[in-house]
């Protein structure tokens, strides 16, 4: 039995086991869809975005009038004595006095130095900032889902490699026992074969543990029961057509971090407009309709009442406030300057991250081709070594070396694919271009 037949046998056994367990086959597209629907951080970011959207109203900007209804009812019981000019007096115990006032008042600020318009524009920018934060959260979580998913693909491939080497180790142990039984090998060869088989089984158990924990982690990202079992696809497809210049151009338009800094500058500029508005007068119109009634058990007047309309305006202007206006404007200008510096810093950071990530991406693409060739060579070497081992023309040490070289080559090839996929995900995350 050559290595190709052994590998096919292992795949068939794995396929049967998977079919028996009827595991869910989870694709990366399904995983991203579940994350978008279930992930708690994405849900919180969506709600925060809705909050900023809800806050964009002309009323919140102070453009609409305010109406207030009020009612006041006072009652008291007193012991009262009144002495008149002629010397006569009147005394009344438990004298009842009450007053009732109610009405509606309306106020409307019709001019405040255009502060209300700057406030409305600022609320709109805050909504855009909430949208950018939502986009950033989605990109980060989707990137995490992709990383966790392809980590499982990598571990699943390595499980297959370890299953293959156990089949080979079992065959080697059987051959060693047969050769020992007919006197062509020593007991030491059987013991060595058993030790190597045990080592392979330990490695397989460790890999199964890591694979199970990887499933739990992915379920956490998907915000679902960690006990849900599934399998992932067995291939890693890497996009090898990425171009650095295109990624940088996309990042300037779509990177949520850079977008947030640009919005923050606009918010700072609108804040300065609101501060400058305090230099202008504020005009407020007021009107209302009020009714009042009072009753007294003792006095010249036992009952009074009034009702009517009132109206007017209020104008105010800051003349001197201890130079606070000048200070506030200076601070607001410095905030704008800081915002511009933050944009420039974000640009440099973004271009640096893209450049380094792209270099890693190119290296990993080369490693995929190299490790693929290494795996093919290691497989061919193991096939030849296995045939020689069967006829006793090669030592067990040489056979074990060839076996380990094959397993390590498969693991390295799997790792190269995974690392290249991580590089692709990182680049697309920076460019704000992960498809989901």
UniProtKB/TrEMBL annotation:
Pfam family of the protein (one): OEP
SUPFAM superfamilies (UniProt xref): Outer membrane efflux proteins (OEP) (SSF56954)
Keywords attached to this entry: Cell outer membrane, Membrane, RNA-binding, Signal, Transmembrane, Transmembrane beta strand, Transport
Gene3D superfamilies associated with the record: Outer membrane efflux proteins (OEP) (1.20.1600.10)
InterPro entries, A to Z: OMP_efflux (IPR003423), TolC-like (IPR051906)
Subcellular location: Cell outer membrane
Signal sequence range: 1-22
Entry similarity comment: Belongs to the outer membrane factor (OMF) (TC 1.B.17) family.
Protein name: TolC family protein
């Amino acid at each position: 039995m050559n290595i190709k037949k052994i590998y096919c046998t292992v795949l068939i056994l794995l396929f049967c086991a998977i079919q028996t367990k009827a595991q869910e086959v989870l694709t990366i597209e399904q995983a991203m869809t579940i994350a978008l629907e279930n992930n708690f951080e994405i849900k919180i970011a969506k709600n925060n975005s809705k909050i900023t959207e809800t806050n964009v109203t002309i009323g919140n900007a102070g453009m609409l009038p305010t109406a207030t209804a009020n009612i006041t009812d006072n009652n008291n019981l007193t012991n009262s004595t009144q002495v008149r000019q002629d010397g006569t007096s009147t005394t009344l115990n438990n004298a009842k006095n009450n007053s009732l006032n109610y009405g509606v008042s309306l106020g409307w600020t019709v001019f405040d130095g255009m502060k209300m318009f700057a406030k409305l524009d600022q609320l709109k920018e805050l909504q855009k900032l909430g949208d950018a934060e939502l986009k950033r959260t989605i990109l980060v979580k989707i990137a995490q889902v992709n990383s966790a998913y392809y980590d499982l693909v990598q571990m699943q491939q390595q499980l297959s490699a370890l299953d293959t080497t156990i089949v080979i180790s079992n065959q080697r142990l059987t051959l060693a026992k047969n050769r020992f039984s007919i006197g062509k090998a020593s007991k030491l060869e059987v013991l060595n074969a058993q030790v190597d088989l045990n080592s392979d089984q330990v490695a397989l158990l460790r890999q199964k543990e890591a694979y199970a924990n990887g499933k739990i982690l992915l379920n956490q990202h998907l915000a679902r029961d960690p006990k849900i079992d599934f399998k992932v696809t067995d291939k890693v497809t890497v996009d090898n057509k990425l171009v650095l210049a295109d990624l940088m151009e996309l990042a300037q338009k779509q990177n949520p971090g850079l977008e947030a800094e640009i919005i923050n500058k606009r918010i700072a500029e609108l804040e300065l407009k609101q501060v400058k508005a305090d230099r202008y007068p504020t005009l407020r119109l007021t009107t209302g309709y009020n009714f009042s009634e009072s009753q007294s058990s003792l006095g010249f007047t036992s009952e009074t009442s009034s009702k009517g309309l009132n109206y007017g305006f209020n104008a105010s202007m800051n003349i001197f406030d201890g130079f606070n206006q000048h200070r506030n404007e200076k601070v607001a200008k410095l905030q704008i300057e800081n915002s511009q510096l933050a944009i420039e810093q974000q640009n440099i950071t973004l271009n640096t991250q893209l450049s380094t990530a792209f270099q890693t991406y190119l290296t990993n693409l080369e490693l995929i081709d190299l490790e693929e060739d290494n795996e093919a060579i290691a497989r061919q070497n193991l096939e030849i070594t296995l045939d020689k081992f069967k006829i006793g023309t090669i030592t067990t040490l040489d056979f074990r070396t060839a076996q380990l070289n094959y397993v390590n080559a498969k693991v390295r090839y799997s790792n190269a694919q995974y690392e290249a996929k991580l590089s692709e995900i990182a680049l697309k995350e920076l460019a704000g271009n992960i498809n989901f």
